[in-house]
Amino acid sequence: MRLLGRSNIVIVVLILVVIAACAPAMPTAAPAKPTAAPTAADKPAAPAAAPATAAKIKRGGTLVTANAVPATMDPIYDTVSTVTGQMGVYETLVEYLSADLKDGNFKFVGVLAESWEQQNPTTLVLKLRKGVKFHDGSDFDASVAKWSLERMATATKSFAKRHGQNFDKLEVVDPYTLKIIYKQPSALHLFNLSSGTGGTGSVGPVILSKAQMDNVGEDAFGNGKASGTGPFKLTDYKQGDVATTVKNENYWGKGADGQPLPYLDGIKIRTMNDLAVQFTELRAGTLHLTHAPKPADLPTLRQNSDLVIVQMKWAPLRGYYGFNQWKEPWGKNAKLRQAAQYATDRENYTKVMNLEAGTPDWIQGWPTNWPGYDQNLGPVYKFDPEKAAALVKEAGFPNGVDILLTHDNNTTKRKQAELLQGMWLKAGIRVTLEALEVVAARQKMKAGNFDMHQWDNSPSPDPAYASRMFVSDGSAQLINYNNADVDKCFADGEREMDPAKRNETYRKCQQIVQEDDQIAGLNRADTLVVFRKEVQGVQVKFSYADLTSIWLDK
Q1: Vertex 456 angle, CA 451 and 462, to 5°
Q2: Is 237 found in the same domain as 336?
Q3: For residues 284 and 505, what is the distance between their CA atoms, to the nearest angstrom?
Q4: What domain range includes position 434?
Q5: How confident is the model at residue 450 (pLDDT cuts 50, 70, 90)?
Q6: Does residue 380 come out as left (phi exceeding 0), alpha (psi in the -120 to 50 range) or beta?
Q7: Is the domain of 515 the same as that of 546?
């Protein structure tokens, strides 16, 4: 497998952004091929940048982005998803980067690892980049990479343990060769070394400076004394408020103009929770880029010709509802669950909640680009309120039936719950709503003291990550769903490294969940990245922008 060098990436990025700027939204992503197992890689010679491209690039300026500045700069304790990965301070060994935003195609690209070889199903050998220094001046090498990954996998309170749970042993072969021996085969070896997996803890695999952490201590490191190898250095950090970075003058990467990256002088990250304020500042040009807008905001965003909107159809936010399988009558009465399915008008639900950027989902939230996606498995339950009402009676409830729907206490979840409440009433299903804060809702789910729950699941590039929602001991298991066949199926899917066999295995997983009817998909909503037209060189790490090659055309 051939790797893209940084200069190659920049050329691709510039072409993609021109495409994005010419259209208000990206077309539907074509289904990707099943995830392949990582293969041997070698380092290509970096071609010279096209003269016209290099001449167009402008250096300097500060990019202002809106995001939630994390409560810590220590990535293994980061609870706001991939935010520390969006500052440009840290780097991973490899990245899962967009090769074609138009089609939603991605590939693994070497960053601090120049190449890698899967020697056998449980042994991965990485050749690391030489001459790289951390912001504190210490050297990057295999021993530091080993320490950083082991810390991620073993620290007691690490949110990123899942990335290293399959590590058996990490070995320093020589100063720039790292061998990872795994407990079992997995198609996720490279995914778990990248920051493109989505969800809390997904930036755990970044490589940190051991010398800096030893010097200042873990607490000070997380409180703003952070040191990575990225194109930007942290200079100002206020938890939950603002963070500022400046250009790393000693960064190893080269731009399309042959000069060191980054092109920008720095980045300012601001916590801006009010979308109305974000839109105002985007229009004014005081804000350049944001990931915060929801699909329902598209009509407002499209009114401004200065904005570029990328709908990341390959990274959908997936909506679900599910039943407590251990509680009467819903968990034990298949006809009641089927009645709820027929009573759900997914087309209308999607129209109300997501407008142009949503897709009705009958197949358990299985994105089209995942291995195992099979459109022939659904839609199974087309909206049919009369059939739903008949099934309620057949289930033993001639006068209708009651259910308590527990949901997170926010405006969006309330609206979603009210939509289901209105739809189901026509079938004789009387829904009482219970709004709880997130922690309280999760505690209630774990205790099994609920009838039904409604939730969203973050984007992820592979069903092996989504297995946390389906398997009985999964960390994202929100309704205590338990099926031994499902547990085995997802385990088999993750271990399988042959793409065709993975595809068939996950199709079976999908089929079992579909037949159980304990978990039901509602819809898929495109995640968005929105930026002003002067922002050039945007590259995407699955579901968020990479800041390495961005430049400002002004």
Answers
A1: 120
A2: no
A3: 50
A4: 313-527
A5: very high
A6: alpha
A7: no
